[in-house]
Amino acid sequence: MSNLIDLSLSELISNIKNKKISSKEVTSEYVERSKKSKKLNSYIEETFDTALKKAKEFDSKPDFNKKLPGIPMAIKDLFCTKNVKTTASSKILNNFIPTYESTVTQNLWNDGAILLGKLNCDEFAMGSSNETSYFGNVISPIDNDLVPGGSSGGSASALAAKLTPATIGTDTGGSIRQPASFTGTVGLKPTYGSCSRYGIVAFASSLDQAGPMTRNVKDAALLLEVMSSFDNKDSTSVEFKRPMYSKDLSKDIKGKKIGIPKEYRVDGMSEEIEKLWEDGKNYLKDCGAEIIDISLPHTKFALPTYYIVAPAEASSNLARYDGVKYGFRKEGDNLIDMYEKTRSAGFGDEVKRRIMIGTYVLSSGYYDAYYLKAQKVRRLIKNDFNNIFQKVDAILTPSTPSSAFKVGDKSNNPVSMYLNDIFTVPVNLAGLPGISIPAGLDKKGYPLGLQIIGKSFDEQNILNIAYSMEDKINFKFNLKEWWMND
Amino acid sequence: MTKDYLIERNGKKYEVVIGLEVHAQVLSESKLFSTSPTKFGSEPNTQVSLVDAAFPGMLPVINEFCIKQAIKTGIGLNAKINNKSIFDRKNYFYADLPQGYQISQYKDPIVGEGSVVLDLSSGSKTVGIERLHLEQDAGKSIHDIDPKNTLVDLNRSGVALMEIVSKPDLRSPEEVNVYIKKLRSIMRYLGTCDGNMQEGSLRADVNVSVRKQGDDKYGTRCEIKNVNSIKFMQMAIEHEANRQVDILEEGGKIDQETRLFDTKKNETRSMRSKEDAHDYRYFPDPDLLPLEFNNDYVDSIKKEIPELPDQKKSRFIKKFNLSPYEANILVSDLDTSKYFEAVIENSDVKLSSNWITGQLFALLNEKNLDITSSPISAKNLSKLINLIKDGTISGKIAKTVFEMMANGDKNPIDIVKEKGLKQQSDPKELEKLIEKVINENQDKVKEYKSGKEKLFGFFVGQAMKVSGGKANPQLVNEILKKKLK
Hints:
The complex is a heterodimer. In chain A, 36% of the residues lie in helices and 13% in strands. By secondary structure, chain A is of the alpha/beta class. In chain A, α9 (302-317) crosses α12. Chain B folds into three domains: 6-301, no CATH class; 309-419, no CATH class; 427-483, Arc Repressor Mutant, subunit A, CATH 1.10.10. In chain B, α14 crosses α15. The longest helix of chain B is centred in the middle third of the chain and has 20 residues, at 230-249. Classes of the chains: A alpha/beta, B alpha+beta. Chains A and B meet through α9 and α10 of A and loops of B.
């Protein structure tokens, strides 16, 4: 057996099921490695002792019918976890311990997984580099001055550094796919309504979706299978027969029609990305798929639309953090003074920026020009996809316009930061599933990803396409483990 | 016709224009978007779920029963039911608003235009309903327990309210009184709101403007917030209308503003001007899908609608030959109408109506009781009425029996028997009795016969006295007339 830490989630599971390794062994290994990896700052809260205790419990009464038997897993700190501090990486929740569990994480624990800890992310998932966290920025294991992407930066970093065999993130505008792309990992944003939003700290309700982040496509299929469920506690949860994604995973994509949208060839896109995309097309052709040039004419409006809709919803969703009921409070002379002091000190700059944008676009006199218009454009973007999916089965695009950038490079330029989401945002606006898979390296040797976008609830199809491509791409990254302490 | 309600100043007459936004608490076991109970008067913060307290990641889930209640109420208001409606967020900060927004309906309410018919002393009047929408109630801020801090009770947070908005069709405090009572009556019939104003189940924002009689343009209105009794509404309107007239008469202009009614000083005062009005930044709640149902759903609810006050009133008039006035009194309260129908099942309608609206109402009033806790059951009142009708007792004796019944709901038949109150209707017995009266009062007989006919009453009185009030007065009259001829 190769090094335990190098096993994929699926391999780990079969080893546990075959009783070759115990949950305790796996958990201890990940705990030890995580303890040595503080430099990455990927954890906010560690639950190592409890994890080890639970692993022992699992081993004493193992249930191998579970899909994640005794598998330790660290998760993004946006999921509320019962009796475990949940902060959304914000000072305003830095002392918040939920008495309840999010549906998605409950699904993980019900299927045998064990919580290793809570992972850093951008504050309230607002950011593309994990630099907006109250608990400090996260470093990518790819290089010592590199951002892991965001907002699920702690998740991507921990996954790529092998501090957890798999993880989960949330994706509002690219927060799973962009960091996956930056760290050479697989990230899937499911169709809106596939995974329950109950118990996930809300950023933008009409866009937020939880999804798996894994080392390979098969693991993503398996994890999605566990995460996705109909939940009557979430009114936007959709009731549909959920496939056995991992069991039905297939490399047969012969005859599948894959669209290449010309609007994603943006100005100033590097040759490397062009080449990556071209390679992707060829891999697909090799697999027997048909490549079709398509047009999604409203693509260029996606980013401005997103940066109206998401802040608008966020400005309202974050109103509850007011110092009255829970979380951080800074006393004031009166109620208004307390609100101002609490929210001024409790929120970081990026969160404040978005609250202000959101408040502005919803204000009377501006609502029609911004919010309402954005909703109309959102409908047009959706229609673009609906129309094109009459002709193609999936769409192939780059995941990001560039590879990962250095810490501090973009943190003072919000617009250039927002441009990171240009390929991922349309997918959230349309509520579609999208997966990013590692597809190559740039000149600097940093990972680049390709994104496959599918029809609503057609995750199986994009997983199959990704699974086939993964095989052809055969992505390798030589992790140097520069961050490890002894 | 009663006179129009007009305010006179310097020889000019002003008309008062009033529109109401009534907040009616939906009668339901649990809240609009959570499963917490809604019981009134519970210990603070004991009926609060994570959703009501707006914990991170908590999501609203609509309570279907509240939707049915709103649809029912809409049907009761003869209103258009909208098959698609949308829940919006109304954003503002306040300590007793945990989410930082109230989930309400803004542009697309569940119920559209409708109407309510008022029975006024001058005749009937139709008041337009603009809309009815569903929304969450806020919690309660308590300022007078802790000297330094405001305490918050979230029991009410998230309770379902129906906001019923009238058109500006009301013209006097009296019409407002009748309108509120009619709304309450309809909702009580439907079982959609208990209408209890003391417990805050029914409150209203009152919009008031004035204009010179004959003008067809509305004046600038002021909104008086959150008035919780009909009496206060009337006082507030009267004060506010006069305030506005005074301003206009001094050549001033009315500022559109929100005002509060001070019940102790009997005056309204400015709360905030139009410029300071909140910008609520309404937008569709992304946590909730548009609310959609088909006509079959509405039809199935229509089948559950009971007979409503207006229908009941016309039935009473038609079937029982009651006057519109009587019918109105009997139907305005569902429990009264139930009591009435129980009594008339075995008794004379006219007598029943008289006794309920007369003696019984007086008794309930005096004891400050609801008809549901009446000391006299419908069954026993029915028996009493039958005793009158068949001549067993006179109306006068009946009043005595009624009083005895009031102390412990005794069967009137037993009372009459025990106390020997049965009316004396045997002509032979009565003849003997009357002969005795005549014999004992020969001097009066002489006077009577010599033309002092007023004395007839004296003989009747004597006969009744001798009989202990039990003699049938009609027979006494007849016999006396014969004997004194």
